[in-house]
Amino acid sequence: MKPFLNLDDIVEFDDVEENGLFTSKRALFSAGIGARKLGYNLTVLPPGKVQCPFHSHRGEEEMFLILEGEGELRFGEKRYPIRKHDIIACPTGGADVAHQIINTGATDMRYLALSNLCDVEICEYPDSGKVSVVAARDGEQRLGKIFRAEQAVDYYDREKN
């Protein structure tokens, strides 16, 4: 295994989303070049699309490097124009650091994504009031649940006394 890859050589995308507004394709290549604690991917985002819902992470910090195209970064309560060679930091936290990349340009946007990998990750989705909990070990998902935040229950709910 070579410990590197040239982004121009990527022709196969192994994570393809085609869900209306949420349409993109990603090449997940970190494990293929030997990464163990960081995740990398190349994302291609068509015009007028977003890669995922507006969200924040509690465990994984993300960085994005825009390689081609232009768009908008939604970050907390603000919006910023973004373009080629912009580097975006998305630290862990709540709604104040929730983020979403939107392709507002006329051509595909391509960007490199980088994050630390966590065995347990919690994501919050401020627009829809959802929470996602994922637990994994050695890259294998052991638990994955998405629920509405308003469905919170008491600690002793359904417990027998």
Description:
It is a single chain. By secondary structure, the protein is mainly β. It has a domain at 12-118: Jelly Rolls. The chain contains no helices and 13 strands. It starts with 14 loop residues before the first strand and ends in a 13-residue tail after the last strand.
Largest sheet: 6 strands, antiparallel
What order do the SSEs take from the amino end to the carboxyl end, as H and E? EEEEEEEEEEEEE
Q: Unreliable stretches, pLDDT < 50, 5 or more residues?
A: none
Radius of gyration: 17 Å
Give the CATH topology of the domain at 12-118: Jelly Rolls
The end-to-end distance, rounded to whole angstroms, is 56 Å
Q: Architecture of the domain at 12-118, CATH level 2?
A: Sandwich
Structural class given helices, strands, pairing? mainly beta
- Number of strand segments: 13
List the helices and strands and how they pair.
Blueprint lengths: L14 E5 L2 E7 L9 E8 L10 E2 L4 E7 L1 E6 L2 E6 L3 E4 L8 E4 L6 E8 L3 E6 L4 E8 L2 E9 L13
Antiparallel strand pairs: 1-2, 2-3, 3-10, 4-11, 5-8, 5-10, 6-7, 6-9, 11-12, 12-13
